[in-house]
Write a structure and sequence with these properties.
Blueprint lengths: L1 H28 L4 H42 L3 H17 L2 H13 L6 H25 L3 H16 L4 H14 L4 H16 L4 H4 L3 H20 L19 H33 L3 H43 L1 H15 L4 H14 L5 H24 L6 H15 L4 H14 L2 H17 L5 H4 L3 H22 L26 E8 L3 H10 L5 E5 L8 E4 L4 E4 L2 E8 L4 H9 L2 H5 L4 E5 L6 E2 L1
Antiparallel strand pairs: 1-5, 1-6, 2-5, 3-4, 6-7
Helix pairs in contact: 1-2, 2-8, 2-12, 3-5, 3-11, 4-5, 4-7, 5-10, 6-10, 6-16, 7-10, 7-20, 8-14, 10-17, 11-12, 12-13, 12-18, 13-15, 13-18, 14-17, 15-18, 15-20, 16-20, 17-20
Amino acid sequence: MTLFLEKMKEVFKTLFPVVVLVLILSTTIVSVPTDITIRFLVGSFLLLLGLTIFLWGVELAMNPIGGYMSREVGASKSLMKIIFLSFLLGFLITVAEPDLLILGNQIQDASNNTMSSFSIVYMVSLGVGIMISLGVLRLLKGMKMNIFMGLVYALILVLGFFVSEEFLAISFDASGATTGALTTPFVLSLSYGLSTFKGGKDSEENSFGLVGIMSSGPILAVMLMSILSGQKNIQGVAEEYVFLTGIISPIFITLPHVIKESVMALVPISALFLGYNFIKFKISKEELLNIFIGLGLTLLGLVLFLTAVNSGFMDMGRMLGMKIAALDTRLLVFVGFTLGLIIVLVEPAVHVLGEQIENVSGGSIPINIIRMTLSLGVGIAIALSMLRIVVPSVKLWYFLLPGFAIAILVSFFSDSIFVGIAYDAGGVASGPMTATFVLAFAQGAASSIETANVLVDGFGVIALVAMAPVVSLMLLGLVFKSKEVVYSEDAPVLVEQDAEDFHPESFNHLLLAVVNRGYADKVMELVKEKGCNNVTRYHGRGYFDDHITQLSLVHMEIHEEQEMVSILVPTSMTTDIANLLTSDENLVEHGDITLYVTHTTSSLKNI
């Protein structure tokens, strides 16, 4: 229950500004029907509850599943097995992604049924599967992320000259649609598990980037589909949008379809995991029960979340877009910028990515800075999208192709860990909230402007939203690399103490575990299971090749390829904890663990 309350508090803090902004717009600048406003408020409550439950379920189920599957991939000695299993994981988690199904239906309608939803969904899923398998090979073989993505986007740039503006927009929108509320947490977990299993000095950087690699698959797939099929332009006439009426009835109308989509999204990957567990993993009944509970919570949260978005947020977004565009096009650009500043923080996957950044970096990368950078980047992206709708001569590729070209160039000079984070952030920012509310807002605006085409201008919004975080976070990494001194938030603090308050018998042992990078999490997991919660992680990652972290308090140095965990242990438990850590085969064989123990007034002793 504590975890549930923590997640709810986090979601409320990010959802509240969106609700306030929408209510201000709908009650002051434009007039919105009462039933749509009330349904939006009901949807906001369902979204708060659903997103909280969803994030709770992800932590209980999807993270462990991703961890087990990543170890199965990483432990394989067969190259063909690695490629096949990685492809299968990527394909199965994408083929039933609700956001992708919705986009497939939109493309089918826009192309006057010349492109079927079925072909779009399966072509995109194939692209994702292929790119995830290549991404896993990149990680295991140690190829640098900036070189890999530079080659991928160079190919995309070349193909971009052979497709029309419509298909350019669709390809990048498909990229955003594949990184939904379900796929992103799983792929992040898979990437983190593989990097931990591989270990080594690049494990921190390897924890990120797989979502970004995955996102390039749909771009290549749709572009190749357009070139090979000879389909150059979207043909068709958009039907007039009909707003739902009532408050409760639209929710029940939406619910059955959402339940079906959510179940379809969870069944394939769950079945694959259970099959492997039956044959190979054979995890304990208690752990399996927790995963089942987590899957149930994930399903419930996803249903509530998507119901809220489809029944409350879509209509409100479209209505606001129509009304504001009809009132003043300059105001439309400003409101788009403001929406972008706020709405990206509500994306479920942004929360998951933020937690992983915090865990992997040991707090050295402030999460608030990451979120502020994402927010500013997406705000600018949506403002540019509104500018496209208002000014017909402004084309999508004016921003898209140069933007990614800049990101690729900067990646060779930016801090290495930010390269993977930036590409991942491009996927997580364009999740279900952005792809529904913002897309509805843009389509509503396009329907009110005579020079705009809803079918053409409606696509491309997600594309710019997916590009902005890549560029902005890459630039942030450039700033971080230029820093000469980096202070850790976890640094020990010396407290002055009066002699009369000094009681040596009350002090515990300070146990220090030095391991290869990527294995500190395992140390922390083991000692916390024994009830030792006063644990701090340090790492030697720096911003220069010759960086060494010095801890003057204990006169130790941590090299770049190492991490250290300090554990405050009751004297009676010191031997037990030491034996626990040194008996773990993974820590001894791969983590190269070394233990030290010290009293407050004594020097370090190697044990």
